[in-house]
Design goal:
elongated; alpha/beta; Rossmann fold
Length: 198
């Protein structure tokens, strides 16, 4: 069984799973950068914002979260959504991550769609971290972002089983086989009483 350290290194090296550029220390602000707004039912959005700080530091510029509370009206949430967008938008537009396609937060975000406001549903930690890293390098490509989100959904049991299988196959190739030069030489020594090159 692989240790958690081995697992972490393995996942980190899988570019198709995490195409991330994690930074040590605070997340620096570019001169022009698209704002990111997280919206969700309950505390999912604020929780993901808090988790992102573990990777990008406590002060992540132009990143906010808005929650739909149990007793909140759609009108109140929409107002909070608009205020959140204003906080993160410095003129480069806003990328809104909604938790659920067809849910109230996503449905209400449709009212603020524009050329400068992009909404992506199915918010995941993989997508958020990818977006934060990508916007520091330039424009966030949605096609790449969503593909990264899909590739981040895996069955860890199968992933680890595949890794173990690959290791066993490599080990089998590295072991001397019955037709290897070394084994053939040893066999001829036994039969002839002398060793010679094959």
């Amino acid at each position: 069984m692989e240790s958690t350290a081995d697992l972490g290194l393995f996942l980190k090296n899988q570019n198709h799973i995490f195409a991330l550029n994690f930074r040590d220390g605070p997340c620096e602000k570019r001169e022009k950068m698209e704002g990111i707004l997280l919206i969700s039912h309950g505390e999912m959005a604020p929780g993901m914002l808090d988790s992102a700080r573990m990777f990008f530091g406590d002060e992540i510029p132009q990143l906010e979260a808005v929650s739909l509370k149990m007793d909140m009206t759609p009108e109140a949430f929409l107002q909070n959504l608009k205020e959140g967008m204003m906080k993160v938008d410095t003129g480069e537009g806003v990328l809104v991550f909604a938790d659920l396609l067809g849910g109230t937060p996503a449905n209400l975000s449709a009212q603020v769609l524009s050329d400068n406001v992009r909404v992506v549903t199915g918010l995941s930690m993989t997508m958020l971290l990818e977006a934060l890293a990508a916007r520091m390098a330039g424009v966030v490509d949605l096609s790449s972002l969503m593909e990264t989100g899909k590739n981040g959904i895996v069955c860890l049991n199968k992933l680890m089983a595949q890794k173990q299988k690959e290791r066993e196959e490599r080990a089998a190739k590295e072991r001397p086989g019955k037709n290897s030069p070394q084994q053939r030489t040893e066999s001829e020594t036994v039969l002839t009483g002398e060793s010679r090159e094959i």
